[in-house]
């Protein structure tokens, strides 16, 4: 009998077990293409392009994106090492800091946010489906009969796009890996074509980036702070669950190099393209158009509309599967290990996505920066606690068996570590104090940073008496092979 078979079935199953060495086959190429597939999405495009629409010059917008991504890659690296070392997913690693029961609190929050994003991205992708169907079906626009706040044609598009997600999920993580391998590069190629158009209408690259800022003196830095927080918050969910991906890595070098290529480098290139395209739309159409679907309609060309909409569809499907389904799937498996596996949990996650009715709140796109900031503020404390626990409390060493043992060192008091919950509450309180204390409303521009920093310090201080490394009788990889 393998060791894993003796563990508590409420804490252990095949999807939650450490990945054995022979199954850790993701190379730096896989991580690069996975990130390429994730950063090329409508929200990222709209957010970067929206900086120009909000009044920044193209260079100011690009600098803002670069600053946010330097912060992001550092956070990703810091929180990805444990996953690559032990082959464990995010919800299992959380047990070390929160306890096996307490970990369910941040797991539920993280899953809630991921499914929220799934719903948003699915709605945005369904707009591309609608553009494609409208090109081929006469009278498509006449189906705009409202049902629960969305037209019948919108519902048809939404259900078709939702079904594509179900198809990819049904084939598990390996299908996801190979789908991302070609989807990310394809979107880059399509984006370069639009950049070529923007350069053509502007008469060169220089005119695109010579457009001046429209911000009044003193307006840039407040917008910069809000925008950096929003851009970081777009990926605040992945900062937490990056171990769900790095657990498959052949080595620490593979995941770190792959992420460095795929996240900051590709994001800056993609943002450069979106900013250049938006600047080109200002020249071509007299106004900055930051929404991709509206830009395609502005061309009034069926061929461009069809190719562009197909690209948006692939890009959105790519990011949604990797960023917004993998995590809640593992989260649900962690909650119900005896009843769910990855595929079932993924299908349940996308069913729950309907409940967020994204077509209703997306009618107010001007709130996107505030929404992104609040999401980051909610998840920042959990990231701070995970980092403090692994590096300061555990000294980068975990006791693998205790993750699946109700009497192990991560059991705390009946599975609850109240110190982690207190640190989380303090981080949330400081991050959102501006909502209830108007004079401090300026702090809302830094929600993710405040939540992470306060929870990090509070958790490290509260756990100071317990800061000791776990005993490692065997190398982590060998233990993972045995447990897996």
Explain what this protein looks like in three dimensions.
- The structure is a single chain.
- It contains 23 helices and two strands.
- The chain is mainly alpha-helical and 484 residues long.
- It has one domain: Hydantoin permease, CATH 1.10.4160.
- Strand 1 and strand 2 form a beta hairpin.
- The N terminus is likely disordered.
- Keywords: Membrane, Transmembrane, Transmembrane helix.
- Pfam families: Transp_cyt_pur.
How much of the sequence is in beta strands? under 5%
CATH H-level superfamily title: Hydantoin permease
The count of helical stretches stands at: 23
- The amount of helix comes to 55-70%
Instruction: Tell me the number of strands.
Output: 2
Distance between the first and last residues' Cα: 12 Å
Dominant shape: globular
Pattern of helices and strands = HHHHHHEEHHHHHHHHHHHHHHHHH
Number of domains: 1
* Residue-averaged pLDDT: 85
CATH architectural label: Orthogonal Bundle
Tell me about the largest β-sheet.
Answer: 2 strands, antiparallel
The CATH class assignment is Mainly Alpha
Family: Belongs to the purine-cytosine permease (2.A.39) family.
Main location: membrane
GO molecular function: nucleobase transmembrane transporter activity
GO cellular component, one term: plasma membrane
Give a quick rundown of the structure.
With 484 residues, the chain is mostly helical.
């Amino acid at each position: 009998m393998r060791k894993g078979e003796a563990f508590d079935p409420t804490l252990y199953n095949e999807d939650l077990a450490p990945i054995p060495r022979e199954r850790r086959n993701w190379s730096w190429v896989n991580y690069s293409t996975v990130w390429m597939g994730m950063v090329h999405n409508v929200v990222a495009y709209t957010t970067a392009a929206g900086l120009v629409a909000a009044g920044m010059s193209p260079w100011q917008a690009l600098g803002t994106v670069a600053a946010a991504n330097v912060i992001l890659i550092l956070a990703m690296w810091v929180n990805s090492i444990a996953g690559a070392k032990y082959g464990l997913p995010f919800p299992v690693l959380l047990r070390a800091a929160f306890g096996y029961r307490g970990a369910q609190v941040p797991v539920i929050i993280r899953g809630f946010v991921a499914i929220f994003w799934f719903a948003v991205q699915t709605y945005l992708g369904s707009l591309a489906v609608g553009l494609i169907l409208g090109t081929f079906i006469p009278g498509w626009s006449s189906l705009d009969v409202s049902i629960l706040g969305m037209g019948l044609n919108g519902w048809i598009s939404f259900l078709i796009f939702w079904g594509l997600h179900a198809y990819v999920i049904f084939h598990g993580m390996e299908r996801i890996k190979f789908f991302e391998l070609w989807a990310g590069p394809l979107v880059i190629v399509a984006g370069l074509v639009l950049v070529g158009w923007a350069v053509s209408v502007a008469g060169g690259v220089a005119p695109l980036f010579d457009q001046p800022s429209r911000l009044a003196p003193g307006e840039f830095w407040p917008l910069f702070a809000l925008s950096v927080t929003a851009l970081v918050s777009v990926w605040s969910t992945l900062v937490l669950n990056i171990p769900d991906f790095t657990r498959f890595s052949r080595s620490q070098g593979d995941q770190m190099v792959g992420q460095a290529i795929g996240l900051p480098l590709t994001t800056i290139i993609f943002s450069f393209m979106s900013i250049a395209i938006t600047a080109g739309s200002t020249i071509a159409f007299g106004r900055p158009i930051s929404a991709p679907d509206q830009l395609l309609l502005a061309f009034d060309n069926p061929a461009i509309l069809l190719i562009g909409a197909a690209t948006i569809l692939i890009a959105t499907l790519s990011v949604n599967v990797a960023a917004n389904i993998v995590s809640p799937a593992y989260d649900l498996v962690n909650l119900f290990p005896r009843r769910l596996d990855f595929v079932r949990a993924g299908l349940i996650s996308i069913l729950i996505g309907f409940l967020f009715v994204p077509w209703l709140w997306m009618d107010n796109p001007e709130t996107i920066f505030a929404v992104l900031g609040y999401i980051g503020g909610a998840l920042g404390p959990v990231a701070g606690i995970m980092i403090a626990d692994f590096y300061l409390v555990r000294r980068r060493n975990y006791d693998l068996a205790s993750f699946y043992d109700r009497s192990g060192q991560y059991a705390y008091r009946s599975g609850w570590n109240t110190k982690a919950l207190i640190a989380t509450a303090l981080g949330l309180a400081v991050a959102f104090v501006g909502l209830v204390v108007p004079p401090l409303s300026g702090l809302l521009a830094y929600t993710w940073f405040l939540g992470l920093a306060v929870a990090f310090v509070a958790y490290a201080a509260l756990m100071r008496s317990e800061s000791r490394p776990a005993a490692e009788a065997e190398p982590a990889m060998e233990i993972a092979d045995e447990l897996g």
